[in-house]
Amino acid sequence: MVPDSLSALFDLEDQADELLQAEAYEDAISAAEAALAIDPKSLTALLVCAQAQNALGRLADAAGDEGHRQQTFLAETAYQPSAPVVLILSSTGKGNVPDQHLLPRTKYSRIFWFLESLPEHDNDLPAYDIVFNAVGDLDAAPEAHALAAGFAKLCKRPMINLPDRVGRTSRTGVADLLEGCQTAVIPKVRKIERPSGGWTPDACGSDLRYPLIARPIGGHGGEGVVLIDRPEQFTSLVPDAPVIYATEFVDYRSPDGWYRKYRAIFIDRKPYPYHLAIGANWLVHHWTTGMDHDAGRREEELRFLDKPRDVLGDKVWATLESIGATLDLDFAGIDFSILQDGRLLLFEANPTMLVHPEDDQLFSYKNFAVQNIIDAFDRMIARKMGRPPSFQRRQV
Predict the structure, then answer these.
(1) For a FRET experiment, which of 32, 93, 258, 339 has its CA 20 to 30 Å from that of 104?
(2) Interaxial angle between packed helices 25-38 and 43-55, expressed in degrees from 0 to 180 and rounded to the nearest 10
(3) Whole-angstrom Cα distance, residue 89 to residue 380?
């Protein structure tokens, strides 16, 4: 495949996956089909088609019988013949770890199984070198998580992100896990089922302090998230979901009026800076901050990416390292801020966070930090396989 075609393929794969995550399923299928026109064996595109059509309730897979999750697996051969073969465990629903940039076809061959169709015995699987558990959210995919846990007990190869450790990273799980961290503020959070008659002012009980953040379980990217100032707003503002997380809101606005949300990625338990989103609203996401119109905020983000320990300070950096060790995951991410008293304020910590290079030239200054994360991930895989970074594949 010529370089221009390869670049176009990667762009379409990224676009299709982003549209899938945004629940724009028809558009995701269109982008995936355009990618398949370039490479009919594009695993990312096949998966987007399968998952988008599953979400739309269709039975047929646009990839054909080869892509049907109940019949067989999806396989994609790397461009390098000596590349390791990665078995990726995933779900047909949400909550999967985005893997397209961590495990690109330029460096890895991939065998993708929806866990609903995994065989009972390891010997029934095609040959593989290492397993990547992409089921990152217990709330979004409880059945797949249970199947991954069962598979881990019989798996004979190294596995990235053991399911029992992933299972501790729900919002309540992380709060419990990090409760004893004295240098961090871990907001109180409760998982609440909607009463049969609908939400009522006393739905969250009396043990949480207002204001509260309410979000549907299994959601990501801020979907359905609302801030509730007083109990009576439960009846009108809480999202129409069967179960929500209610989290005590901590005002983390900086003295200059901006809200700052830092993100770091843990690779083999070590933190690496990924981005800094600075916005005027408490619900901060990088794409909604308007940083594309503010060079000063982009320069601040670059300082964080270049010298994170200097920006955060030794105390916060040590807290990050401690959290990475406590999570004990091979791959995960954390969103946090820094309060005016110098303590780290936790938002969330789990494996579902996307790592991707920036195509927008305005934000391309971030890509060296992204590459640092990807390089660290490659080194971890080489270590787990007992192979040098050149990834000489074992003989099977």
Answers:
(1) 93
(2) 150
(3) 18
